[in-house]
Design a protein that fits this description.
With 384 residues, chain A is an alpha/beta fold. Chain A contains 12 helices and 12 strands. In chain A, the strands form 3 sheets. Chain A has a 7-stranded mixed sheet with strand order 2-8-7-6-5-3-4, sandwiched between helices. Chain A has a 3-stranded antiparallel sheet with strand order 9-10-12. Chain A has a two-stranded parallel ribbon with strand order 1-11. Chain B has a 5-stranded parallel sheet, covered by helices on one side. The longest helix of chain B has 17 residues. The N and C termini of chain B lie far apart (54 Å).
Chain lengths: 384, 259
């Protein structure tokens, strides 16, 4: 498969996860709502999985709601809370660098009569508490800030934001998809009320995720039906996927410390070498408060999609924030929020390592990248 | 279809672009076209003799299809008469490349426009051989919206203490040599200093251009600051790019306008 340094976009499912999932497709195929023994087996698997996920984020078992993935979790957490609590207020706060799904949820809420404030970030992508405080009104019911940014890897001051929300009696939602498996998550310590998790980011199957809902949070469901998941998420539970996600979390809990140490070395090798060997290259994101697996650069005078295709030709799979590789042709809103100009945002390169990354993958990138950048700069009217 | 799903021909021209470079001389005309939305930029250099394109070179900042279309049109245009070259359409370029992903058809398929621009510049010059210098838009000093309201809340008319700008994103408005000095000094305190000036890159004083280029200062030529925005302090500015006649926002923490 060549060199894969795009773990942020997608991760392979761990073989150990696949092994525990398989029996639930054909042998233990029961529906947890059935009262016979095949159904009981499914219930047991479901509740055991719920417990494993709860342990992973220091939550209680009853606070875990299984969904179809992170996007649904954030929809349920934010829209479900806003709709249920609109008598308390109609104002929500998000950060400028939230994942695009959160921005679009906010847009939907604006169409439905809510107002949204967006918090600008500093040049490294961090939100400041004072800028949140400035935007809080007596109508503010929810603040949603991603635990860490999916593109540039900047980590937010979660416990400070959580403490502020608790003090002001405002619900605190966080999309933890970029952070899970890389940072220890503790919803109690950080005073998080609603937390979005995906399964694939733990090397589990796609198509399943979790919304953590703190005990006294009240939400409206978005999917109405047979009343599964405490009525918050109807539909027969996808037991194979749920079991897979729980196994992935269990493995992650055991192996995360060692993995993170390894990733940090890879990340720092990439950052130090690239900044040194390529002139007019810059690191995007925070120099220290960043995910251990994330190295994000921009190179003056070149455009990301052509960089991506050039690396693809050399068997290297990476990501870019360039508009030309997106569906909308807009440059990454995250990079714009850092204060970058469009032409700067176009020249970005994101490298994210993961469980199966080896030193030779890092070496391969370091070997070819300077030449690729140089060639594209020779073509560029912007680099003189 | 994915936006990067390119034909073999596109990939070939991307990997081995033909006629990359620039041309110089009195018989060379330059065409420059950019799409502000997508961010692609193309420059074409054409050498015309007896109404025929004798030589053609290009430079491109942009995605794979931007590079490939530019490369392809140099092959199509070389040796053609001006009249023939002006007839080359975007569709012709795309067809020669065995097609482009639909989303790229309007955005990165600028080569035909850039070639036309170069030829038009050549024809214009033929007509007015005296070559009147392009007028530099010096931009009458307009009032900057928000300048007074954010004074000392991110807007500064003088700089006494550089340390307050540590790690901030700063924009310095061109007010002559002193403002250049300040921009350069600030680079010791923060990685992000932007300098905005009405001047054209090509007509700016050589010394100024050289010093700024050697530094980390990001220069916005032919641009003006229109508005300063924020909740309680400066958070964002609105810039007018006079060359492209395009307006955009930029996140920033401090604005220095020497009085």
């Amino acid at each position: 498969m060549g060199v894969y340094l795009d773990y942020q976009s997608s991760k392979p499912v761990d073989q150990r996860v696949i092994d525990v999932m398989l029996p639930y497709f054909s042998k233990q195929f029961g529906n947890p709502s059935s009262l016979h023994s095949i159904g009981d087996e499914a219930t047991e698997a479901l509740e055991r999985s719920r417990q494993q996920i709860a342990a992973f984020i220091n939550a209680e078992k009853d606070e875990i709601i299984f969904t179809s993935g992170a996007t649904e979790s954030s929809n349920l957490g934010i829209i479900g809370y806003a709709m249920r609590n609109k008598d308390k207020g109609d104002h929500l706060i998000i950060a400028e660098i939230e994942h695009i799904s959160i921005h679009n949820i906010a847009k939907y809420l604006v169409k439905n009569g809510f107002t949204i404030s967006k918090i600008p970030v500093d040049q490294y992508g961090r939100v400041s508490i004072s800028k949140i405080v400035e935007r809080i009104t007596d109508k503010t019911i929810l603040i949603s800030i991603g635990y860490a940014n999916n593109e540039i890897g900047t980590i937010q001051p979660m416990s400070h934001i959580g403490a502020l929300c608790r003090e002001k009696n405002i619900a605190f939602h966080s999309d933890a998809v970029a952070a899970e498996g890389l940072l220890p998550l503790d919803v109690k310590k950080d005073n998080i009320d609603l937390l979005t998790l995906s399964s694939n980011d733990l090397y589990g199957p796609k198509g399943v995720g979790v919304l953590y809902v703190r005990k006294d949070m009240r939400l409206n469901p978005l999917i109405i039906g047979g009343g599964q998941e405490r009525g918050l998420r109807s539909g027969t539970e996808d037991i194979p996927c749920i079991v897979g996600m729980a196994k992935a979390a269990e493995i992650m809990q055991k192996e995360m410390n060692g993995e993170v140490k390894r990733f940090t070395v890879y990340r720092d090798t990439l950052i130090n070498n690239i900044l040194e060997s390529i002139p007019r290259s810059h690191l995007n994101g925070h120099p220290t408060e960043r995910l251990p697996n994330n190295a994000h650069f921009r190179f003056d005078g070149i455009e990301g999609e052509s960089l991506l295709i050039s690396l693809k030709d050399k068997g290297i799979s990476v990501s870019t924030g360039s508009a030309c590789s997106s569906k909308t042709l807009e440059p990454s809103h995250t990079l714009i929020a850092l204060g970058l100009l469009h032409e700067e945002a176009h020249g970005s390169l994101e490298l994210t390592c993961g469980r199966f990354t080896k030193q030779h993958d890092i070496d391969a990138v370091l070997k070819v990248l300077p030449g690729v950048v140089e060639r594209l700069r020779e073509l560029s009217p912007l680099y003189r | 279809m994915k936006s990067t799903q390119y034909s073999e021909k596109v990939l070939d021209h991307f990997r081995n672009p033909r006629n990359v470079g620039t041309l110089e001389g009195i018989d060379v005309a330059v065409g420059r076209v950019g799409n502000p939305v997508c961010g692609d930029l193309m420059e074409f250099y054409v050498k015309i003799k007896d109404d025929r394109i004798e030589d053609i070179k290009f430079k491109t900042f942009g995605c794979g299809s931007a590079i490939a279309t530019a490369s392809m049109i140099t092959e199509l245009a070389k040796g053609k008469t001006i009249e023939q070259a002006l007839k080359i359409t975007r569709q012709d370029v795309a067809d020669e490349l065995d097609g482009l992903p639909p989303i790229k058809m309007h955005c990165s398929n600028l080569a035909a426009d850039a070639l036309k621009d170069a030829i038009k510049n050549y024809q214009k010059r033929q007509k007015t051989e005296s070559a009147t210098q392009a007028t530099v838009n010096t931009g009458a000093k307009k009032e900057i919206v928000g300048e007074q309201g954010f004074l000392n809340k991110g807007v500064f008319h003088a700089v006494d203490d550089f340390s307050i700008f540590k790690d901030k994103r700063i924009i310095v408005v061109d007010r002559g040599d002193k403002s250049v000095e300040i921009a350069l000094s600030l680079t010791k305190y923060t990685p992000r200093v932007v300098f905005v000036t009405h001047l054209k890159e090509s007509t700016a004083p050589k010394d100024l251009e050289k010093r700024l280029r050697a530094s980390n200062v990001k220069v916005l030529y032919e641009s003006e600051l229109l508005e300063i925005k924020g909740v309680n302090e400066v958070e964002q500015i609105h810039i007018h790019d006079l060359n492209e006649d395009e307006e955009y926002d930029l996140f920033i923490d401090a604005v220095i306008i020497l009085s």
